[in-house]
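Input chain follows. Return structure tokens only.
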Amino acid sequence: MFPQLYHAYHSHYQEDIPFWLALAAQAGGPLLELGCGTGRVLMPLAQAGYHVMGLDHDLAMLKLLRSNSSVNGEVIPPLIASDMRRFGLAAKFHLVILPCNTFSTLNENERKGCLKCIQMCLLPGGVFALSMPNPRALSGLPALSEAELEDEFLHPQTGNPVQVSSSWKRVKDTFTVTWYYDHLLSDGQVTRLVSTAVHHIASLDTYLSEIHDAGFSVAEVYGDFDRSRYADDSPHCIITSVRSSYAPRYEY
């Protein structure tokens, strides 16, 4: 049930789509999206004619992506069920993207594993780009928040309203966001689904150092999808980098 609610809630968010399309136009294909979920970013790229591939560990999300694309008569990109922290692909890419605030949900070792896998499947001179919440902004928020209503939409199966609210809790170097999906049934009852995401807060310098050590040259750091300059109060941290011709030697 959750993939349907996740898709219904997040599919309307379009603010970042022009950024990813412009990046694809600059870098060219083929391209790989990590954490593609139900295809909110992947499908606009495929519809624009790019040779794309999606990777996600959640089979239910990928199944819904495939089902929705089939119903709409869309060409379904190749989809891979795998863990972005430890994957290997024979295909090589000109662009790898990690959107949707996913990179900061990985801890230090997981980020390093993910970057290693990206470096190995990205062509020299290829581009890796990610977006995540601004770690400086997260660090400046209160330690705890009350749940606040974010949005309301109709349930894709019952047609009844679903209200989405969220709260957060910051403890040391983690920032946990909790979403509450309240399905308002016609008999007056409410069923609730709860989803959480834990972000590991590190400094921007730490992220940039990890990317550099993985064999990338950082190109740009933006604070928003309009490519505005990154600042302490920016809503996002968007990093683009280029794979160098030098491949770091990893110890196995």
